[in-house]
Amino acid sequence: MRSFQRASAWLAAFVIGLPTLGVVAVIVALRGRSWELFSAAYLVLFVLVYLAGLILLALLRFRPDWLRALVAAVAVYAIASVTPLTDALISYPYHVVRCGGLPVVGSFGAAPGYAVPGEEDYAVTPLDGSFFCTEKEAKDLGYYHDDY
To answer: Superkingdom of this entry's organism (predicted)?
Structure first.
């Protein structure tokens, strides 16, 4: 039992602690705008990934505990990266690196729209699916910007 407790603590560090540092960095980059919506989606994602990771952790039977937790974390995040409603949240950090900063977020609705970093409604939600490095990319693909 102590081994599972140690491994679950490592799992929490891998799937909640480390990714939270990235979310904090994005919130700082947003300069205080729309951080609530942005962080709420990630909080839910981290908790769900942790709970799924606990199931996998219970099935894995090897040592050391940190390695078992790391294998569970990588497996759960790999599954989440191809799961609808979580794939946009999982791929967002990749697009931050790819674009060299916060990307333009494209979302689906009655018509495809986008939000740029710094706007009040800038956030990544499970319903977002496209990321662009520039507004021009978004416009060229038929996305519109709602100027209200």
So the answer is: Bacteria
Domain that holds residue 83: 2-100
Q: How far apart are CA 8 and CA 89, in angstroms?
A: 23
Dig out the tokens for 43 from the structure: 């909080």
Which residues fall within 8 angstroms of residue 85, CB to CB, at 6 or more apart? 126, 127
Whether 117 is covered by a domain: the verdict is: no
Number of domains in the chain: 1
Mean pLDDT of the chain: 87
Backbone angles phi, psi at 94, to 5 degrees: -60, -45
Tell me the pTM: 0.73
Mind listing the pLDDT tens digit for each residue in 48-74?
Answer: 999 999 999 999 988 899 999 999 999
Which residues are within 8 A (CB) of 49 and not within 5 positions of it... i.e. 6 or more apart? 15, 73, 76, 77, 80
Determine the Cα–Cα distance for residues 45 and 88; give it in Å rounded to an integer.
11
Domain-located, residue 81: yes
